[in-house]
C-alpha cells in the first residue's frame, strides 16, 4: 500500500483471457456487496488510473501498446525531442484509434520530467529506453515519478557496463565494472546502484522489482519511495568488489552496516 493512498475508489484490473466474463461477474459481485470498486477495461479512460510517460518514444509503439493492452490508464504521454518522430507518433496514434489516451509531446525528456516534480503532477510510470546510456535522464526521472511509482530503465551500452571501458562506466554510473563471468549480473547491479544514488539525493530510494539482461542490453524495473530514514541505510546495500585476476574469486567489502541504535541514547 502506497502512503497516502485512499481506501476508496479502488480500480480493479483484470488481465486474464476471459476478461468479459470476469468483468460481468465482478460487477455483479460489487453491486451485491455495495462496494465502490469498479473494473477498468482496456481502451477506456480511468480517472483514478495511471499517468504514464514514455520519455523517448520514437514512433510511439510502446505508448500505443500501453493504450491497447493495459487497463486502468488515465493518460499516456508519448514524448520525443525529434519533430519527425512526433509526427510519426501522431499518425500512429490516429491509425490505432488511441488519441483519447495517448498524448504526443515534443520536448526534451529531462525538461519535461523536471516540470513534473510537484507531487500532484508526477507520473505513476516512467519508461526510459534511450540509445546508449540513460545516465543523463536519471536525475530528472527519480524526481518526476510518484510515491511508489514505477520506473523502467533500459541501458544498451552493455560493453561499458561489462567492463570494456571502466573510466566511461565510472563517469556515467559512478562505478567501475570488472571483466568476469558474472559481468551481466554486475551490469544490472551497477544500474541499480546508480538509480539509488540519484534517488538518495532527494531523500528517496528504489526497490527493485525485476532486472533483465538480454542480448546487448539490460532493463530494470524499480519502485521509488520517499523515506529519509531508509535513505540513511542505503550505504549498507553497497560494497566494493575485490576480484582475483587469476582464479576469478571475489570478496565483498561493505561500505556500511545497518544497526539499530538503543533507545536510551
What fraction of residues sit in β-strands?
25-35%
Along the chain, the helix and strand elements come as EHEEHEHEHEHEHHHEEHEE
In DSSP terms, counting alpha (H) and pi (I) runs of 4 or more, how many helices?
Answer: 9
- Which class best fits the helix and strand makeup? alpha/beta
Q: How far do the termini sit from each other? A: 32 Å
Main sheet: strands, sense, barrel: 7 strands, mixed
Q: Give helix % range.
A: 25-40%
Mean pLDDT: 86
Q: What gross morphology would you assign? A: globular
Strand order, main sheet: write it out. Answer: 5-4-3-6-7-9-8
Give structural notes.
- With 265 residues, the chain is α/β, with parallel strands linked by helices.
- The protein is 34% helix and 29% strand.
- The strands form three sheets. The chain has a seven-stranded mixed sheet with strand order 5-4-3-6-7-9-8, sandwiched between helices.
- The model has no long low-confidence stretch (mean pLDDT 86).
Characteristic key phrases:
about 260 residues, seven-stranded mixed sheet, two-stranded parallel sheet, 9 helices, 11 strands, globular, SAM-dependent_MTases_sf, tRNA processing
Topology overview:
Layout: E1 11-13, H1 19-33, E2 38-40, E3 45-54, H2 61-69, E4 73-80, H3 83-96, E5 102-106, H4 109-114, E6 123-128, H5 135-144, E7 145-155, H6 158-161, H7 166-173, H8 183-200, E8 204-214, E9 217-226, H9 228-232, E10 239-243, E11 250-254
Parallel strand pairs: 1-2, 3-4, 3-6, 4-5, 6-7
Antiparallel strand pairs: 7-9, 8-9, 10-11
Helix pairs in contact: 5-8
